[in-house]
Amino acid sequence: MQVVPLRLQPGDDLRLTLEAWMRRQNIAAACLISGIGSLRGAQLRFAGHAQPTALDGDLEILSLSGTLSADGVHLHMAVADGHGAVLGGHVAVGCEVRTTAELVVGVLEGWRFSRELDPTTGYRELVVEGPAAAMPLHT
Prior knowledge:
This protein has one helix and eight strands. It is mostly beta strands. The chain has a single domain (2-129), classed as CATH 3.30.1330.80.
């Protein structure tokens, strides 16, 4: 695995910036190893909700994880507000970096991630191709 550190700048949209970075790279599969920083508001989709919820104010990124492919990212994040209250969920467009977002990306050589519509879930879900992909998880 190759490790790539990234720093997002104030004003960057967390999701859009990562998606654009992945499209510019010659990387078929990656994951977020670590993600911390601060946001000026966020858009998180909570479990069971169809639409994201706007979180206003300054937020600290406590944890950010996900899978990255050239055709999309799937990110989850936990954030804390100025009182230490923590919320988490699926990262949508609209998470603006306040001071910094420090990310460590793991590039998974020999693997390919893509996203395809899964009729069971109704979402574009992860498709994995690579060395262990021939070993079924479910039989």
